[in-house]
């Protein structure tokens, strides 16, 4: 069965996480994603720790077949070529390929693509219908556009770190590189929308995606600019300012997350805990009071959870229609039937060993009824598709490819 983006050719100039996340999603929907890396340095994650290889997972590269886990996850379903864009001939070859492609994605620092001669202005001369997506830390405009950024800096810049953690404690980042991941998702969304626009009008266009914009658009659903006026600490821990209770609570054998978002859920929770007596407490029946007095509300819930197991708590609250989940460790998540049944934990493959890796990666998160998506091939050996791609898209014969490789251009 064909996939939604079958026939779409994407040239991938990205590195690290935000850009590769975008093109990974496009590959999962069927696009032919061609990774284009510098022949001298290559993809910086391909041979960076932690590694998978014949000896298993390690921070040390113990064999020539060891490859970086990040690369094995992010390069699935893609093809790989090497090309020196800093050389005149390499740039000409790239423009020849771009003339036959549909999409170009890059996450260089702002201005680098222009200096290389592969920005949107150059590419639309070669291909007026090209869709060009630039993914940067702070965007292609604005006073901070030239600032260097990693996820840590972006989380700090947009205020997420100031809100993450417990009240009175130092700011912390989220466990994963959230701004990279979400900006990659937004970039893929923008590219698919631009492809639809081109289908309707024939017009290509440029897309400007900033990690900072993407992350801020998510966190600003919360009225963070009103916290001070509401006498709320900037760091709320696991709580949320609209509901109470909404937190993690200690069980006899671990922790559970419990939340009551509506009045009826709060009443059901009181019934499940055997605290119907609190229905006569006017304060406890007002969500505004409960939010302002979270500690008192949490103490009531903790008194009930502390003597019960996680499984007993989840079973009791599920039966009462209350949202509740055990706080799973990473090992427990890997065994959670829900993720396994939805094929969200899939075995990685190391192309240099030809065997399954000793680690897993995420499956494709969108489930289509007619056009199933997923990654049909493992991450490629770097440069493995050079002959095929350059023959198809740049009309280079094998001898020319070999000559260019000997000159360091490919």
Report what the structure shows.
The protein has helices spanning 18-28, 69-74, 88-98, 112-116, 120-126, 151-157, 160-163, 178-201, 211-219, 263-273, 287-292, 294-305, 310-319, 330-334, 337-341, 386-394, 398-406, and strands at residues 9-12, 32-37, 51-53, 56-58, 67-68, 78-82, 103-106, 131-136, 205-210, 246-251, 254-259, 323-326, 345-350, 355-362. The chain has 410 residues and is α/β, with parallel strands linked by helices. It folds into two domains: 9-218 and 347-406, Crotonobetainyl-coa:carnitine coa-transferase, domain 1 (Rossmann fold); 246-328, formyl-coa transferase, domain 3. The protein has a six-stranded parallel beta sheet, sandwiched between helices. It has a three-stranded antiparallel beta sheet with strand order 4-3-5. It has a three-stranded antiparallel beta sheet with strand order 10-11-12, covered by helices on one side. Helix 1 (18-28) packs across helix 8 (178-201) and helix 8 (178-201) packs across helix 9. It starts with 8 loop residues before the first strand and ends with a helix. 39% of the residues are buried.
Low-confidence stretches: none
Q: How many angstroms separate the termini? A: 35 Å
CATH H-level superfamily title of the largest domain: Crotonobetainyl-coa:carnitine coa-transferase, domain 1
- Bin the strand percentage: 15-25%
Mean pLDDT: 96
Q: Radius of gyration, Cα only, in angstroms?
A: 25 Å
Q: What is the class of the largest domain in the CATH system? A: Alpha Beta
Question: The CATH topology of the largest domain, please?
Answer: Rossmann fold
Biggest sheet, spatial arrangement of strands? 6-2-1-7-8-9
Number of domains: 2
Named CATH architecture of the largest domain: 3-Layer(aba) Sandwich
The biggest beta sheet reads: 6 strands, parallel
Tell me roughly what share of residues is in helical segments. Answer: 25-40%
| Helix-strand category | alpha/beta
> How many β-strand stretches?
14
Number of helices: 17
Shape estimate: elongated
């Amino acid at each position: 069965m064909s996939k939604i983006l079958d026939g779409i050719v994407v040239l991938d100039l990205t590195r690290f996480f935000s850009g590769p996340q975008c093109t990974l999603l496009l590959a999962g929907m069927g696009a032919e994603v061609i990774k284009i890396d510098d022949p001298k340095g290559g993809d910086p994650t391909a041979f960076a720790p932690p590694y998978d290889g014949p000896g298993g997972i390690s921070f040390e590269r113990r064999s020539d077949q060891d490859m970086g886990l990040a690369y094995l996850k992010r390069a699935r379903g893609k093809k790989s070529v090497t090309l020196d864009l800093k050389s005149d001939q390499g740039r000409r070859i790239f423009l020849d390929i771009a003339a036959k492609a549909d999409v170009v994605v890059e996450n260089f620092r702002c201005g680098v693509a222009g200096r290389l001669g592969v920005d949107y202005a150059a590419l639309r001369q070669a291909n007026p219908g090209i869709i060009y997506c630039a993914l940067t830390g702070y965007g292609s405009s604005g006073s901070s556009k030239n600032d260097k950024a990693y996820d840590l800096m972006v989380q700090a810049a947009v205020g997420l770190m100031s809100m993450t953690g417990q009240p009175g404690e130092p700011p912390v980042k989220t466990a994963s590189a959230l701004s990279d991941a979400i900006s990659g998702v937004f970039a893929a969304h923008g590219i698919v929308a631009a492809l639809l626009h081109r289908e309707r009008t024939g017009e290509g266009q440029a897309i400007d995606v900033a990690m900072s914009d993407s992350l801020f658009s998510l966190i600003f659903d919360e009225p963070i600019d009103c916290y001070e006026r509401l006498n709320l600490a900037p760091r709320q821990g696991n709580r949320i300012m609209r509901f109470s209770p909404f937190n993690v609570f200690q069980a006899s054998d671990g922790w559970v997350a419990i939340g009551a978002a509506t009045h009826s859920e709060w009443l059901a929770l009181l019934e499940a805990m055997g605290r119907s007596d609190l229905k006569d407490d006017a304060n406890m029946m007002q969500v505004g009071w409960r939010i302002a007095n979270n500690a008192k509300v949490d103490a009531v819930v903790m008194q009930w959870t502390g003597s019960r197991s996680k499984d007993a708590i989840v079973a009791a609250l599920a039966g009462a229609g209350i949202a509740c989940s055990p706080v799973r460790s990473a090992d427990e998540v890997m065994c959670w039937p829900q993720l396994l049944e939805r094929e969200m934990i899939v075995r990685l493959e190391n192309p240099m060993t030809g065997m399954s890796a000793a680690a897993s990666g995420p499956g494709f998160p969108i489930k289509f009824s007619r056009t199933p998506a997923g990654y049909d091939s493992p991450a490629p050996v770097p440069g493995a598709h050079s002959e095929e791609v350059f023959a198809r898209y740049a009309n280079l014969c094998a001898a020319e490819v070999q000559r260019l490789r000997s000159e360091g251009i490919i």
